[in-house]
Amino acid sequence: MDSLAFSSKLHFLRGGIRLYDTVGWKSSFAPRMSFSDSPNSLEMIWMLNVSSSCLKTRCFGVGVPRSTIEVVDDRVVEDEEKQQEAGRVLRVGLICGGPSAERGISLNSARSVLDHIQGEDLHVSCYYIDYELNAYAISSAQLYSNTPADFDFKLESLALGFSSLSEFAEHLAASVDIVFPVIHGRFGEDGGIQELLEKYNIPFVGTGSKECRQAFDKHYASLELSKQGFITVPSFLVKGSKTDESELSKWFASNQLDPNSGKVVVKPAVAGSSIGVTVAYGVADSLKKANDLILEGVDDKVLVEIFLEGGSEFTAIVFDVGSGFDCHPVVLLPTEVELQFHGNVDVREKDAIFNYRRKYLPTQQVAYHTPPRFPVDVIRKIREGASLLFQRLHLRDFARIDGWFLPPSSNVFLTSDGKFGRTDFGPVLFTDINLISGMEQTSFLFQQASKVGFSHSNILRSIIHHACLRFPNLVSKNSISNHLPRRSKSFQETETFRKREGTRKVFVIFGGDTSERQVSLMSGTNVWLNLQAFNDLDVTPCLLAPSNGSSSDASSRAVWSLPYSLVLRHTTEEVLDACIEAIEPARAALTSHLRNQVTNDLMEGLKKHSWFKGFDIADDLPTRFSLEEWIKLAKEVEATVFIAVHGGIGEDGTLQSLLEAEGVPYTGPGVAASKTCMDKVATSLALRNLADQGVLTINKEVCKKEDLLNKPALEFWNNLTSTLQCETLCVKPARDGCSTGVARLCCADDLVVYAKALRDCLLRIPPDSLSKAHGMIEMPSPPPELLIFEPFIETDEIVFSSKSVSETAHCLMWKGHSRWVEITVGVIGKCGSMHSLSPSITVKESGAILSLEEKFQGGTGINLTPPPTSIVSNEALENCKHHIELIANTLQLEGFSRIDAFLNVDSGEVLVIEVNTVPGMTPSTVLVHQALAEQPPMYPHRFFRKLLDLALERSK
């Protein structure tokens, strides 16, 4: 572990830990961190080069040598303590992680919560529970890791560990006022963490332990719903591997299902809302899949449920606005979940469900509609039913309740007369209760809350303040909160204030045509939300609509300025559809009507609470411009454009050229550099003279798609491997982003599979379709006309897990045969003086090519930032950064960009893969890790502000 080059000192920070003596911590210890004063995530804590017996640092009663302590700014610590003693700060303990497979999503949720609740009146301390239920105090910087695996194996050196959950609870009791558990699945929603907090009388947000246990268990919850008079889905419980197949056969028969092919859903009873859920066909397949889940340890109880045909899935957020223990639940505007299928799909794909991948990776496989496209009476029934459930199950503060609206022809529920949920349009039934709803930036919570007037910050703070009402000792802190939501003004309203002194207008543009348009939406949304932290900025999110091949003139492309609630979608197509839907008079009138109903219900309870300062999201409509009109408007209002359009006109110099023509400042490199870097061949040519300075390029062969499709595969393969002098190839689009359509080909048969995917316009190549194991390969849509083939570069495999292989050695394993690793590096600065951030080693978890998820989806992907010294020496690392800066300056990059390359770990030489002038800016992107590794660290909002400032400086 000394290879990770972390500090061997235990660093203390402003507002952080204080030590009275060498044998124990001050009882009020709290690693309180804020955006402005948190340390580098990789330097912050704690002790590394120590014996294994010291690695598990305890918070109480453990001797720590005085020499390992470094106290920083004690005056500030005392000032903050005086504030807290005076009751001016509410101390919130944010707990994430857990043993569930959803712990990666828990990190995403916690990161989002931290971003939006931290403030002068509310201070956040961060904690993490690992898969073995060990508890750690972590820095807020660690929340920006992609996955638990990104830092699980470093926890003993990067975090302050507790020797037991009891000790952890004692610490919380002394250090925070209220806990916000953000653990999805086991230990978070099954009553585990709640029971621990209740035992130590620690206030917390959300439902109590007993009620969590009952609602989380899908089997028990179904029985309770039926008992309460609700329509439920017929189900069969598989418990243990000895379930009698004949009993399951009888259940199939009683529900008129074919025993050989009848469709059912198989899902764990207590594993969360997404993990392990699959479709099965017939008795044998159902029992096999259920037993597989049991044998894999996903759950020891599995439900087999009828597959609901022809219905529409919905989800509804419930927010309690009552006082104390008086429950007054209000159901926000529900969301309809629509599964979509494009292009050629396997027939069984039509039986797909809303699974983990569809829920958390933005693709066109799913779309959301808030409010649902259901009859008004059905929406009313959903809201009424969810409210009743919330009350009858004794839930608290907030929850998410999922269900189905089925067509009237559904004969599954003919025996449900007299049960709640029957309507003239078909039955409404509730299927899942989520005690801790997902809280990622575009989650259902924020989609639905923004539709009725809450910003991210406002709804989260309202939930926390409501939870405080149950605890008399928190009433004083709860009532004096002076946090006033910053109202989100409509595009039309902001024009009135565009000349306001000290305010700077910013347009964040995202979307476009390319296969990375969904990642672009994630990037733009993240930038927009982070820049809203600055009161001197007035930030408008804008969608560059797809061209649909209607015009070759870029300036005539459509751009939509977006109200707050319309940004919070998962695909650009969904945003565009929502814009068109929003301005349709009948739909707009219905949405406004339903919104008013909900806001009136909310205000009936919220008006009684002094901490609620009002709604802060206006019910605005989107505005459509041509790109030319939009740029002229940007010039008129003196806006700076933050470009988050990946690929296409956002990255090939077209948008930059149009903005320059009108004198509008923008982020990122200029026209010439953008054109060069978008063309991977041109990039190699521009760098070909740097070989003697340690910068190498890969030989490439550019081919037309039509040639690949029309020539014999074996002949094509032999020509390529002969020309490039290699045995295996890497194929990628010639002029597209960096993530889609990239595959490793090991033989002519692989080439056939890839060509067929292009010919059939497939959106995805399924996992393990090629000869070498790989994950899902997202394909460009439409398929590229030009493809690049190049030798596949073998790198050394890096393996690690969160488990130690011995008491003193940890899980990072690297054999180092080839001496090459893959890296990605951000560069930032002015033209000619670009600065290299700390490189990250990218680790592929499935296959030889980084998947779209591993690059951009929160909760996936592993990066080692900075590279461990056991792999890359400090000297080689410095050489690498020098070479990266040489590349950036040779290409005349400015603002910021990302360079992907292979690194020779001995010499620091780099072999360039490609340069991205509009890199991913998603919440857990590698650039965030690298910015946090700077000195001083740059948190995301500061990082994006820096990029904005560089754009303005260039324009002067």
Automatic annotation (TrEMBL):
Coiled coil: none annotated. This is ATP-grasp domain-containing protein. It holds the Pfam family Dala_Dala_lig_C. InterPro entries: ATP-grasp, ATP_grasp_subdomain_1, D-Ala_lig_Van_CS, Dala_Dala_lig_C, Dala_Dala_lig_N, PreATP-grasp_dom_sf. Keywords: ATP-binding, Cell shape, Cell wall biogenesis/degradation, Ligase, Nucleotide-binding, Peptidoglycan synthesis. One of its GO terms (biological process) is cell wall organization. Belongs to the D-alanine--D-alanine ligase family. It comes from the Eukaryota. Residues 223-465, 887-952 form the ATP-grasp domain. One of its GO terms (molecular function) is ATP binding. SUPFAM superfamilies: Glutathione synthetase ATP-binding domain-like (SSF56059), PreATP-grasp domain (SSF52440).
